[in-house]
Design goal:
The protein is an alpha+beta fold. The protein has 3 helices and 8 strands. 39% of the residues lie in helices and 27% in strands.
């Protein structure tokens, strides 16, 4: 499994999802909700738990830290539910280009589609920049 996430310290949620932390028999068991625009901050180096797998300390927005499964983070990244700052930059660039192209082609439908996505991405992008 590729470990591309190790370099990134902040990931932004683009699609809502849940994470179940702890097992059901544990007092620490909780379903954590991640919403559009939330950021997932990577806090420490990963560690391995015997018979369970790789975990890493994370924080959602300004919340309390907890441990999250690295394969789970990888899965959400692969599903395009989590974006790095570079992913956001590229998506913004793409939608800016598509807005410009739709204006040139006078394609009203494409314009509104890409303008909506562009506005949505630029609204969450500044949140990431403040955590450098």
């Amino acid at each position: 499994m590729e470990r591309r996430m190790a370099v990134e310290k902040i990931l932004t949620v683009l699609e809502p999802f849940e994470y179940e932390k702890g097992n059901t028999e544990c007092s620490c068991h909780e379903i954590v909700q991640l919403q559009y625009g939330d950021y997932l901050q990577i806090l420490e180096d990963p560690f391995y738990v015997e018979n369970t797998g790789w975990y890493i300390a994370v924080r959602i927005n300004e919340g309390n830290p907890f441990y999250m499964s690295i394969p789970f983070i990888d899965e959400k990244y692969d599903e395009r539910m989590l974006y790095t700052k570079l992913d956001l930059d590229l998506a913004i660039n793409y939608h800016e280009y598509r807005v410009e192209q739709s204006l040139i082609a006078k394609n009203k439908e494409d314009f509104f589609l890409h303008k909506e996505k562009l506005d949505s991405l630029t609204n969450i992008h500044p949140k990431m920049c403040s955590f450098k």
